[in-house]
Amino acid sequence: MMGEQTPVQTKTEISDAIVVSDPPVDIPSNPSKIPIRPQKIRKLSSTTEQKPLQPADSSQCVIAITKNRRRGSLKSTNALPQIIKPLSANGEIENALHHLRSADPLLGSLIDTLPFPVFESDQLPFLALCKSILFQQLAYKAGSSIYNRFISLCGGEDVVCPDVVLSLSAQQFKEIGVSGRKASYLYDLANKYRAGILSDESVVKMDDRSLFTMLSMVKGIGSWSVHMFMIHSLHRPDVLPVSDLGVRKGVRMLYGLDELPRPSQMEQLCEKWRPYRSIGAWYMWRLIEGNGISTTAAIVMEGGHVQPLQQIEPQREVQQHQLQLLEPINGVGNLGACVWGQ
């Protein structure tokens, strides 16, 4: 009897201290305690069985997670060159035209009647962004005049950098015709470069979504300006400027729409152009230029380089419904249909 009572008392004390208060003699003979005792025994046995399994399970999970991470990193590494491959790369425009002809017969017919697209620019990103800010709200001639004064003040295009811009005073900017607001935009851009938030190297390597987010943080640079910069300065292949008036008018004409498509509709209408929507936008500018349709400014033609002159774009610094004219990246005024000069 003593050999049988000892393990019962031990299990009872481990599982619940309250049970010890009951007389040990009554435990085996009391029917009300019988259903409780097996439950406590099962609880103890399950606990002891799980402990040795935990290290094995967690190690297997670590191995599985490590394998998945390695696979994910390999996939992302392989995809990066395709995302940032510019239209200026050898054979890329030919690939784009082949895709667009097969994906969109209407656009394919238009391609056969218009010149070959040209994407050339030797300006560094910082200089191109400075030029974008300087041309805001200005006609091409006035913008070019101020830009040339700015370059002369800095000592030439080759020396324009964040430190040089930050060394210029507000009075110096004012003397060359740059407003106080534009000067603050240039200072903000230069400060973000100096702080390491942006750099020419990182701008070139960033994927489209990250680049849009980072450039939109700069005062005076809105979504339209970012799109123009990505297309005409970085030659990104798959950028659709949905708010560009010229591209929207071109889409309306190409597909025979009754109304001008809203920016929210542009993504769906031009989905078939992926991954070369930048080329599709280029042909929309040429389409409306060839038909003499005015947008928000006169059209300037220089060879095969199409660029906007004057574009209305919402600014973060003002109320959401207020619009402000912005100028382009490569030295020509803004619009959605015009020519981007070198």
Care to describe what's here?
By secondary structure, this protein is mainly α. It folds into 2 domains: 2-81; 125-326, Endonuclease III, domain 1 (Orthogonal Bundle). 57% of the residues lie in helices and 2% in strands. It has helices at 2-15, 26-29, 36-84, 92-103, 105-111, 125-134, 140-154, 162-167, 170-175, 180-194, 200-205, 208-215, 223-232, 245-255, 263-269, 277-290; strands at 311-314, 323-326. Strands 1-2 form a two-stranded antiparallel ribbon. A hairpin with an 8-residue loop joins strand 1 (311-314) and strand 2. Helix 6 (125-134) packs antiparallel against helix 10 (180-194), helix 12 (208-215) crosses helix 13 and helix 14 packs across helix 16 (277-290). The protein is elongated, with a radius of gyration of 34 Å. 33% of the residues are buried.
Features:
342 residues; single chain; 2 strands; Endonuclease III, domain 1; 57% helix; disordered C terminus; mainly alpha; 16 helices; two-stranded antiparallel sheet
CATH class (first level) name of the largest domain: Mainly Alpha
Helix tally equals 16
Uncertain segments are 6-34, 40-83, 294-342
Strand order of the largest sheet: 1-2
What structural class do the secondary elements suggest?
A: mainly alpha
β content, as a range? under 5%
Query: What name does the CATH topology of the largest domain carry?
Result: Endonuclease III, domain 1
Tell me the number of structural domains: 2
- Overall outline: elongated
Number of strands: 2
CATH architecture tag of the largest domain: Orthogonal Bundle
InterPro entries: Alkylbase_DNA_Glycosylase/TA, DNA_glycosylase, HhH-GPD_domain
Biased composition (Polar residues): 1-12, 44-55
Organism: Capsicum baccatum (Peruvian pepper)
Domain HhH-GPD: 134-289
